[in-house]
């Protein structure tokens, strides 16, 4: 304790810079979170109605058919997102990592990082333009190549809407996940690659036996980030379909948003938010429990 106290007395100026950060976090993150936990036990409209109802909001969750549909939809979004983010960005990172030309490799890195600086709303509006009805880019292209029978109201038909939303951001490579995989590959000792050459490994064997096991920590992190991002996301669905047609693409986060801000059921929306938080905690725990880090590989 004495050593700790003397350490803080010596370096108090540095830690003083953290105070504004904690104030901002407390104001915009922690206080609203704990307030939402409290309000989930109330019938609350966000203003003048505030009645304690205990666990009634949580009981309502189990009989809410709309929420059940939203959970099914987010299951599809999450599963597809995990499969996509654990494959294509990793393959792209491996290919870029093994480019022998330094100039070409750097150019490819910049090319795949550019999507990080583009606002997501711009990307969603672009895809909305691609999927637009008769005059959308996709339908126009299909007509141009003689595939008129393939044209659809991509975001307006229940059979195609959810798959159209999943397809957004194709080919799903650019962004932070690509950088995480690339950083993991760059941290592998060059001596190991020399050994793989001496052992006569072909590129596929090198990927399976060397690269894949040694980026397991990055895979674990990408899986956690993808699950959290998918379950929390609602901007893409809000812009593209607003949850429609019907409830075909509705997500729990969008349902939380509309319940709270369109119908003024802030207490119930707080209960939905707390339930999503618990689901995310459980999924993160399972991921950390069953997926090993790179350092744990024997």
Automatic annotation (TrEMBL):
Keywords: Cell membrane, Membrane, Transmembrane, Transmembrane helix, Transport. It is found in: Cell membrane. CDD domains: TM_PBP2 (cd06261). It comes from the Bacteria. The chain crosses the membrane at residues 12-31, 74-98, 110-130, 161-186, 266-286. SUPFAM superfamilies: MetI-like. It holds the Pfam family BPD_transp_1. Residues 71-287 form the ABC transmembrane type-1 domain. It is a multi-pass membrane protein. Belongs to the binding-protein-dependent transport system permease family. This is Carbohydrate ABC transporter permease. The lineage of its organism: Bacteria, Bacillati, Bacillota, Bacilli, Bacillales.
């Amino acid at each position: 304790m004495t050593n700790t106290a003397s350490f803080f007395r010596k370096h108090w100026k540095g830690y003083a810079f953290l105070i504004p950060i904690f104030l901002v976090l407390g104001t915009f993150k922690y206080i609203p979170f704990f307030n939402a936990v409290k309000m989930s036990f109330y019938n609350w409209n966000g203003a003048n109605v505030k009645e304690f109802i205990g666990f009634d909001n949580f009981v309502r969750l189990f009989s809410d058919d709309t929420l059940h549909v939203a959970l099914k939809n987010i299951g599809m979004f999450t599963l597809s997102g995990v499969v996509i983010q654990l494959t294509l960005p990793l393959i792209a990172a491996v290919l870029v990592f093994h480019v022998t030309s330094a100039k070409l490799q750097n150019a490819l890195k910049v090319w795949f990082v550019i999507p990080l600086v583009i606002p997501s709303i711009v990307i969603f509006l672009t895809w909305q333009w691609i999927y637009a009805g008769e005059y959308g880019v996709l339908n126009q292209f299909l007509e141009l190549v003689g595939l008129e029978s393939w044209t659809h109201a991509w975001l307006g038909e229940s059979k195609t809407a959810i798959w159209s939303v999943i397809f957004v951001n194709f080919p799903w490579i650019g962004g932070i996940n690509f950088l995480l995989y690339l950083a993991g590959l760059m941290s592998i000792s060059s001596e190991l690659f020399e050994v793989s050459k001496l052992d006569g490994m072909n590129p596929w064997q090198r990927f399976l036996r060397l690269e894949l096991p040694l980026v397991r920590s990055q895979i674990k992190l990408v899986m956690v980030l993808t699950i959290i991002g998918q379950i929390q996301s609602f901007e893409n669905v809000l812009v593209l379909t607003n949850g429609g047609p019907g409830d075909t693409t509705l997500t729990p986060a969008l349902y939380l948003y509309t319940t709270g801000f369109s119908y003024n059921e802030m207490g119930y929306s707080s209960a939905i938010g707390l339930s999503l938080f618990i689901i995310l905690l459980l999924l993160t725990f399972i991921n950390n429990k069953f997926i090993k880090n790179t350092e744990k590989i024997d």
